[in-house]
Amino acid sequence: MASSNQTFVVVPRTAPAKAPATERVRDFAEIYADFGPVAGSSQSSRCAQCGVPFCQTGCPLQNNIPDWLKLAAEGRAEEAWRQSEATSTMPEICGRICPQDRLCEGACTLEQSGWETVTIGAVERWLGDMAFENGWIAPIRPRVERGQSVGIVGAGPAGMAAADRLRASGYAVTLYDRQDRAGGLLMYGIPGFKLEKPVVQRRLDRLAEAGVEFRLGVDVGGSLPFTAVRAAHDAVLVATGVYQARRLTAPGCGSTGVIAALDYLIASNRKGLGDAVPAFDSGALDAAGKRVVVIGGGDTAMDCVRTAVRQGATSVICLYRRDRNNMPGSAREVANAEEEGVVFEWLATPRAVLGEADRVTGVRAQRMALTGQSSDGRWSVEPVPGGEFDLAADLVIEALGFEPEDIPGAFAEPDLALTDWRTIRTAGHTKATTLEGVFAAGDIVRGASLVVWAVKDGQDAAAEIEAWLSSRARAAA
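Request: output the structure for the sequence above.
Response:
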């Protein structure tokens, strides 16, 4: 008898239940529910088991998507989970925050043929949550202790992924991070309505239970010299991410009330975690009762506009210089923001921040027009004559992207080579830097990117570090 995945697709695409906008803006809880067993299996059965699975090639992790969809469709959920975790150290997190519309689901054959994509991300999340609930996720128990250690600078997704794989292989692992909690952007950058913090914490707890040491509140290159980290370990992985915000250069951008996106999001997340946040309590990083303009078109901008709505802003406008089709942020997030009352000003760029030095009153913007498409598919824009207009604002949030900090300077390692974009240079397609025994992964190598790419880089770095350490151990034997 043919598998349910080897018949004509007759089951309509159904997404998980989503809280109504009028209800979900009242708090920071995740807005999507998990599938139940019947819905999860039914939606999995829509996978056509393509001979060439474009969904898999569209996934940075090359996840075995058709395999675990088939197992889930057959009611073999635990086996499906095993397939899912084989290629990803945090499937339930990627299932929540990946822009699947631009990755696996966008590449799905059903989507390309007009039959609507399989709900891959929702199934991945469902399997992951079920795995934790049912105890399918085994503790990390190395078969042998290698007697070698790895220091990882940065406890975000790349560092977490590398720590998971390295500890499973028997290496002692220490994660260093300057924040007082591990998780990086997963903990402090991404709002709870997309990723509730207990979902991140259970992954961190699993690492701690496996013996991974966390040294938090430690500024490597500041209070702790990088040379000390290198001396303490057989290999080091730099996975710091990129946190230096790009700032506006328009007149008035230094006024009180113009703030960086990450400062704003960290304050909100810390408040949600129960921390004392003086800059939030003073109103400087709180949108309550304010007219908010967010400048930018990526996922960080979407996180900001949706956070402002939940904080009680009187109005929220997103200003982006290109149109909706050329916006880098997830289409799903744009739709969610619109449902929650965010207004988008497409094809508009800031010209000046209005007001006084101690108070913002608005943003002067310029209408733009698309003019031509480059070889990478990116459209250029130019101003529309006479297209200036003003937007009232009490708070202006810059969500213009991130750049690397001066890592060689901070680490006092002038021989640590950088690219022209000031990211860490690695050799060819490897994770090896120009310093012996020092590797790098994640955004600090590729520039600001997606969490799923950081996970892939962390896993790849772990495999490369293991190979390097093993070769040294054999040479010393």
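The radius of gyration is 23 Å.
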